Amino acid sequence: MADSTFFEQVYAICRLIPEGRVTTYGAVANALGSKGARMVGFAMNNAHAVSPKVPAHRVVNRKGILTGKNHFATPNRMQELLKEEGIKVVEDQIQDFDQLFWNPIDEI
């Protein structure tokens, strides 16, 4: 079983991601002093069941690809949520990723 404290720390960081910005699994892990990007991904897979809400749609892989999209209610829901925030996605990849990237290490 994964460490629930680690998951809660992941969720706390993800709740800080500003609307219209994105971060990566690795950046969240780095902010927590961990190399566990995969563990951040596991946390995101469970984020739909957490309260208060976690904006899991704002967390992508290091190339800006929507690798977590299959963990949403529909395969297109992650992209729809990003689009609602003004983020353009083409073929499951965030456009202008470098400009939209939010680094949590700068905020905590």
Distance between the termini: 27 Å
Sequence of secondary-structure elements: HEHHEHEEH
What overall geometry do the principal axes of the alpha carbons give?
globular
Main pleated sheet: 2 strands, parallel
Total strands: the figure is 4
Mean pLDDT: 93
The rounded Rg comes to 13 Å
Low-pLDDT windows of residues: none
Count of helical regions: 5
> How would you write the strand order of the largest sheet?
1-2
Helix content: 25-40%
Return the structural class: mainly alpha
Task: Write the SSE topology.
Blueprint: H1 4-14, E1 23-24, H2 25-31, H3 37-45, E2 59-60, H4 77-84, E3 89-90, E4 93-94, H5 97-100
Parallel strand pairs: 1-2
Antiparallel strand pairs: 3-4
Helix pairs in contact: 1-3, 2-3
